Amino acid sequence: MNHRPTARAGSVEIIKVERLSKQYGSGANSLRALSDISLSVSEGQFVTVVGPSGCGKSTLLLILAGLVSPSSGDVWIDGAAVTGPLPEKISVMFQEAWLLPWKTAVENVEFPLMLRGAPFAIRRPRALSLLQLVGLEGFANRYPGELSGGMKQRVAIARSLVQEPRVLLMDEPFAALDEQTRTRMGNELLQVWEKFGRTVVFVTHGLTEAIYLADFVFVMSARPGRILERFHVELPRPRTIEMIGNEAFGRLRNRIWHLIGGA
């Protein structure tokens, strides 16, 4: 079976961040969340962001999404300066699925297209195709209250892809799931990514999850968050659970652990 090759150095740069900082408030009550962050991500890469609690990982993601304005610095996505939401280029998935309880799974998936005025004949087949991709073809007409936590997250993944964004930003989307479901969802996400080839930025607290999913892991310092290092995950794809126990995986996890511990 052929798998989409991972983007390598020299590929098209799709995310560029230069000298990014974020401060909340002013004076004695100010809080500096991010400090002088610069990074780039090539098209098609899967990158993860880890760091101590409160280091600004989610703030960074919200700035990339155009949902929060930086205090200084610049962000470009696919060549466009990010000054607000860019739904045609960027999709965001949060820890909670945030499904509309009065809409079925397929209606939730197609909802972003409906908001943009896409006709039923376009949005419904696309939504059904995505539900099939995430393994929920038999649950299209079920309501969120009839779905498990993992199934709700699958619907949320399908919804995040329905507008065919260039970049998918994910803020700890599996954190609320039990360990077994979380691992299964990680594998399923990688399968979807292999087929779609979108660029993914995935924020997580889990070092094992970060390494298992990623081409590159960005490690942030304690607040104010800075990029301490970018690690290349030199593990073959497709990833398998057995890789988590190998020596190279353990060495990389330990390096990141010690780096965060000394941040």
Give a description of the structure.
It is a single chain. By secondary structure, the protein is an alpha/beta fold. It folds into two domains: 13-89 and 166-261, P-loop containing nucleotide triphosphate hydrolases (Rossmann fold); 98-164, no CATH class. 33% of the residues lie in helices and 24% in strands. It is built from seven helices and ten strands. It has helices spanning 57-64, 105-115, 120-133, 149-161, 179-196, 207-213, 247-261; strands spanning 13-24, 31-42, 46-50, 72-77, 80-81, 90-93, 167-171, 199-203, 216-220, 227-232. The strands form two sheets. A six-stranded mixed beta sheet has the order 6-7-8-3-9-10, sandwiched between helices. It has a four-stranded antiparallel beta sheet with strand order 2-1-4-5, covered by helices on one side. A hairpin with a 6-residue loop joins strand 1 (13-24) and strand 2 (31-42). Helix 3 (120-133) packs across helix 4 (149-161). The longest helix has 18 residues, at 179-196. Mean pLDDT is 91; it is low at 1-10.
Summary keywords:
263 residues; 2 domains; Rossmann fold; 10 strands; single chain
Please tell me the total number of domains: 2
Q: Examine the secondary-structure arrangement and name the CATH architecture of the largest domain.
A: 3-Layer(aba) Sandwich
What is the name of the CATH superfamily of the largest domain? Answer: P-loop containing nucleotide triphosphate hydrolases
Shape annotation = globular
Q: What are the secondary-structure elements, in order, as H or E?
A: EEEHEEEHHHEHEHEEH
Distance between the termini: 42 Å
